[in-house]
From TrEMBL:
<dbReference type="GO" id="GO:0008171">
    <property type="term" value="F:O-methyltransferase activity"/>
</dbReference>
<dbReference type="GO" id="GO:0032259">
    <property type="term" value="P:methylation"/>
</dbReference>
<dbReference type="Pfam" id="PF01596">
    <property type="entry name" value="Methyltransf_3"/>
</dbReference>
<protein>
    <recommendedName>
        <fullName>O-methyltransferase domain-containing protein</fullName>
    </recommendedName>
</protein>
<keyword id="KW-0949">S-adenosyl-L-methionine</keyword>
<keyword id="KW-0808">Transferase</keyword>
<dbReference type="InterPro" id="IPR002935">
    <property type="entry name" value="SAM_O-MeTrfase"/>
</dbReference>
<comment type="similarity">
    <text>Belongs to the class I-like SAM-binding methyltransferase superfamily. Cation-dependent O-methyltransferase family.</text>
</comment>
<dbReference type="GO" id="GO:0008757">
    <property type="term" value="F:S-adenosylmethionine-dependent methyltransferase activity"/>
</dbReference>
<dbReference type="InterPro" id="IPR029063">
    <property type="entry name" value="SAM-dependent_MTases_sf"/>
</dbReference>
<dbReference type="InterPro" id="IPR050362">
    <property type="entry name" value="Cation-dep_OMT"/>
</dbReference>
<keyword id="KW-0489">Methyltransferase</keyword>
């Protein structure tokens, strides 16, 4: 599926007709409208837009790739930092009917809209949104995982306030099972990662997580660049040893 006119319009993001056309062509074939979660995913984007949420949900190809990684690994519990309208949570939960998803969100309006979207998608019983700054909410989740009340994490998606990328990765590793996969989104951002002119907090957050994760003996890492309907960006992938 493509976002069908609901695509991201953020200012750092370069539209490219070929990249967009390739996404549209491939998604038409690999995620056609007959797919069971097709309509609920579009509903979530539409409802989020109508309720005034920013147009910054993860690209469909990327969110589906995350959902398929969870399926390939048989993940029991996935964690997302930054829920927004629940778009990626819906992908994760609909593709993985046996998996729990926990998602952390600071904004009460985003959480409320996401809750509507999760209910519409029929996955509200397996996706729990915890409201608050992720660093405040994480200790409670950690104690539930440490006590065995919740399974250890097999998949983590870091997509919240970019200046905390490294802190989130650093803290979450201890809650993961060996072999768990952690992704940090928006690392490349049109090449700003290596642009010496870019000295903003988000870019520092991207550089810090790349530099620190690369030295960390608890994980093996790679950074992948990609293009698509949402422009040129990339993510860091870390696999827990
Ligand atoms: C890029 S959006 C997330 C998109 C979402 N992962 C998706 O795929 O649709 C970032 C979200 O992180 C939330 N956020 C920002 N700072 C946060 C923090 N300190 N703790 C938790 N959530 C935060 C924002 O309110 C926003 O909803």
């Amino acid at each position: 599926m493509s976002t069908q006119g609901l695509a991201f319009t953020g200012k750092w993001h370069v539209q490219n007709k070929t990249w967009t056309a390739v996404d549209a062509y491939t998604q038409e074939h690999v995620h056609p409208p007959t797919t069971s979660n097709y309509n609920v995913l579009l509903d979530a984007l539409r409802n989020s837009r109508d309720k005034g949420l920013p147009d910054i949900a993860t690209a469909p190809t990327v969110a589906k790739m995350y959902a398929l990684q969870c399926k390939a690994r048989g993940v029991r519990h996935a964690l997302e930092f930054g829920t927004l309208g629940g778009y990626t949570s819906i992908w994760l939960a609909t593709v993985n009917p046996g998996m729990q998803v926990t998602s952390l969100e600071i904004n009460a309006h985003h959480k409320a809209v996401a809750q509507e979207n999760l209910e519409n998608a029929g996955v509200a019983d397996r996706v729990t949104i915890r409201l608050g700054p992720a660093l405040d909410v994480l200790p409670q989740l950690a104690s539930e995982i440490e006590s065995g009340a919740k399974p250890r994490l097999g998949f983590v998606y870091i997509d919240a306030d970019k200046q905390n990328n490294w802190t989130y990765l650093d803290r979450v590793i201890a809650l993961c099972e060996p072999g768990a996969v952690i992704y940090v989104d928006n690392i490349v951002r049109g090449g700003s990662l290596v642009d010496p002119e870019r000295q903003d907090e988000r870019t520092f957050g991207a550089r810090q997580v790349v530099e620190n994760a690369g030295k960390d003996p608890r994980v093996d890492c790679v950074v992948m660049q990609f293009v698509g309907e949402k422009g040129y960006d990339g993510m860091l992938m870390a696999v827990v040893r």
